[in-house]
Amino acid sequence: MEKAKGFIELILIRHGESQSTLDMVVGGHLGCRGLSSFGMAQSLELGEFLSSKFSTISSSRVVASSILRTTQTAQLAIGIDPSVIERLCGLCEIDPGEDDGKAWANLSLVEVKIDSAIGPGGESIVQMYDRVDLCLGELLAEASNALLAAGQDAREGPTFVFTHRGPISSAYAICKGTGVTSLKQYVIEIASVHSLLVCRDSIEGARTPRLSSFLGASIQEIYPVHAR
């Protein structure tokens, strides 16, 4: 897949099915139990799709959240050594605080509010949204600088971003300008691929690399894995 000249592309990929979901426990940094056997199979299927669509995948930049299930997905899908994967906390799912690793049945949370922590010592939806906004903006700015340094006629491959439902929902809301209150309306499939295109001209010269400050952004789901 070849992007239009003048655009920067991030390929946002939701991880495969997680073992903590099957075990019904909160899968933060501590509670994540990696991919389930089906999640591993999904990741390999993702790899077949990505290699068929992106000729530069073997030499592209690969980043992931610092939670195990995303780095496992990246490793299986792209077939690279885990040490090559850049781990960014800005791409992590919302921080559940003290509820990390607890069984769903034992959660302290009763009602979700966008500006309140989802668990004791955890993060609010607003805080996650702002964190993702900044992290994706920085990735786009770095990609733009690399492309500019390579010359106007260069074609840079996309950056592959392995992340979670919350960050991808945030990216949709940021690009559409609908704000944090719309996050719940976006259904992000497990093991799905999303293409985020941003006009490079709107990145260059930006004083703060926040995705919400960019113009000409669009995002679309291009490959959901539905069936077992």
Automatic annotation (TrEMBL):
Q: Which domain of life is it from?
A: Bacteria
Q: Name one GO biological process term.
A: negative regulation of glycolytic process
Q: Name one GO cellular component term.
A: cytosol
Any one Gene Ontology MF annotation carried by this entry is:
fructose-2,6-bisphosphate 2-phosphatase activity
InterPro entries named in the record: His_Pase_superF_clade-1, His_PPase_superfam, Phosphoglycerate_Mutase
**Which Pfam family is an annotated match for this chain, by its short name?**
His_Phos_1
UniProt KW keywords? Hydrolase
Name of the protein in its database record: Bifunctional RNase H/acid phosphatase
Name its species: Acidithrix ferrooxidans
Q: What is the lineage of its organism?
A: Bacteria, Bacillati, Actinomycetota, Acidimicrobiia, Acidimicrobiales
